[in-house]
Amino acid sequence: LYSKLSMDDKVKLILESTAGSGRQGKDNLAEYKRLGDFKLRLGLYEEAAAIYTSILNELEGSNSSSTRTHSIDHNEMMECKAGLIKAMSYFDIENAIEYA
Q1: Which pTM value belongs to this model?
Q2: Are the C-beta atoms of 51 and 42 separated by less than 8 Å?
Q3: Which residues have CB under 8 Å from 80's CB, separation 6+?
Q4: Which of 14, 48, 11 is nearest to 33 (CA)?
Q5: 3-state SS string over 2-39?
Q6: Angle subtended at Cα 91 by Cα 74 and Cα 4, rounded to the nearest 5 degrees
Q7: For 84, which of 31, 53, 66, 78 is 20 to 30 Å away at the CA?
Q8: Are 34 and 12 in contact (CB under 8 A)?
Q9: What is the rounded CA–CA span in Å between residue 27 and residue 92?
């Protein structure tokens, strides 16, 4: 709805403030993922890739510890990987292919 009304900046601010709450903005990884999805749709590929990479690194770190404290499920993790590959394909095709 906001996109159709040309209010992308407002959505970006709302998502960034929501994703930015909590420990370094990553306590709620599902919200952080939505921000990555939004930036990908806007064509902000490097920013989206950075967000997806950060989420995947956080998930990898939490998987190596004994407790699972993240707010993202397996399907969303796979969506992050797909989003990362898609975003990287616009600015770093070799790494996107390698990661895939």
Answers
A1: 0.72
A2: no
A3: 33, 36, 52, 55, 56, 59, 72
A4: 48
A5: CCCCCCHHHHHHHHHHHHCCCHHHCCCHHHHHHHHHHH
A6: 70
A7: 66
A8: no
A9: 28
Amino acid (1-letter code) at residue 30: A
pLDDT tens digits, 69-87: 567 888 999 999 999 999 9
**CA-CA distances (angstroms) from residue 42 to 6, 46, 47, 59, 70?**
11, 11, 10, 25, 26
Residue type, 26: K
Percent of the chain with pLDDT over 90: 50
Which residue has tokens 């900046």? 9
